[in-house]
Amino acid sequence: MTGEEIRNCFPYFKSNKKSIYFDSAATTHKPQSVIDTIISFYQKYNSNIHRSMNKAATIATQKFENSRSLVKELLNAEHSSEIVFTNGATDSINLVAQSFLKKQIKKNDIILISETEHHSNLVPWQQLALETGAKIDFLPIRADLLVDTDKIKAKINDKVKLISTHHISSISGGKQNIEKIIKIARSLNIPILIDGAQAIAHTPIDVKELDCDFYCFSGHKLFGPTGTGILYSKSRHLDGFIPYKFGGGMVDNVGLHENSFSELPHRLEAGTPNISGVIGLGEAVNFVKSVGFSVIQEIETSLAEKFNHELSKVDDCVLVGSGPRSAPIFTFNIEGIHHYDLASLLSEYNICTRSGHLCSQPMIEMCGLSGAVRASLSIYNNEEEIENFMVILKKAISFLKR
Amino acid sequence: MLLNEEKLILNFSLFNNWEEKYEYLIELGEDICFIDPEKKTSKHLIQGCQSKVWLDFEFKNDKLYFYGDSDALISKGLVALIIELYSGNSPKDILTHQDNFFEKINLKEHLSMTRSNGLSMMIKKIKKYAYEQLNKNG
Ligand SMILES: Cc1ncc(COP(=O)(O)O)c(C=O)c1O
Question: Which residue segment(s) compose the domain that B57 sits in?
Answer without folding.
Answer: 5-137
